[in-house]
Design brief:
Number of helices: 10
Strand content: 15-25%
Shape: globular
CATH architecture of the largest domain: 2-Layer Sandwich
Helix content: 40-55%
Largest sheet: 6 strands, mixed
Distance between the termini: 35 Å
Radius of gyration: 20 Å
Strand order of the largest sheet: 10-9-6-7-8-11
Number of domains: 2
Number of strands: 11
CATH class of the largest domain: Alpha Beta
Length: 340
Amino acid sequence: MNIVGIESSCDETSVAIISDGKLVSNLIASQDFHTQYGGVVPELSSRAHLQIVSPLFKQSLKEAGLEIADIDVVAATAGPGLIGALLVGFSFAKGLAYSLNVPFIPVNHIEGHIFSGFLMKEKPEFPFLGVVISGGHTLLLLVKSELEIYKLGSTIDDAAGEAFDKVAKMLGLGYPGGPKIQQYAIEAEPSEIRFPVARTKSEFDFSFSGLKTSVLRYLQENFPDNNIPEKEKRKVAKAFQDAVVKALSKRAEKALKRFDVKSISVVGGVAANSGVKDGFSMLAKKYGKTLVIPSLEYCGDNGAMIALRGKQLFEAGKKFGFETNAFPALPHNHFLQSDV
């Protein structure tokens, strides 16, 4: 069985193919031009997706050694994401499936991330604690099976990835902020700077808005002219990153004490951060759990995770008609809100 996965929720266009259970192609076209604007420009993102999705699909077929007639299932991101960007990949995939008369599987982008650890050689083992950390989402999940996902907590304001970008902007490091903050944190000298970890009403929820404000106030008080020495930027970056890691691992540890899980899976773009990896490595070791973090290629947005999630849903017998819309963004929401 050959399954195509198409991802276009933000600023990466990606097409992947899983053939007989093996990933045989995963092409990603990143829109690096957004750096000059300090963030993703939705209209420009949509146009870039339009230009690249078709040639990327053809190249993916070539890389996999397949013909278009060999495709058995087509999966595509159905949200959440930028509306215009989503529609490009979603519409292309739906049209492709319709023309070939094969099943079309709309995939929740976050569900793709949740199961991206299964693209690795060492896979998560059910039940596992899922930690999704990206530019738009921060989630703590109890994943009991491919179709049984319980949301324990989420961010009540900003996502961790967004906080990285905003703090990087405060420090004049540019966009995207995650890699820059990480590099500056690695190069930082020991410092007494400490930023607070917010308290929330729910023990499993996150909050990063106050952390951003704390960084801003520190910079305004100590560098009112906004002339921040590179040495100080590194110290602030390290203190900020440490606070984020502490917030994430603190909630995860509470979940580990409450629920009996066999492994921990940390996914999403921020999962590639070295500080996050170190923090969760220590946590996994402390509780004797297997830790699975996807490789860099699968931490960011990619078609492989969409193809994989499409495969899971198809094999579970989920069926969707061509009238399925990309919006609302959760066409087959498996997040269960009941008590666990």
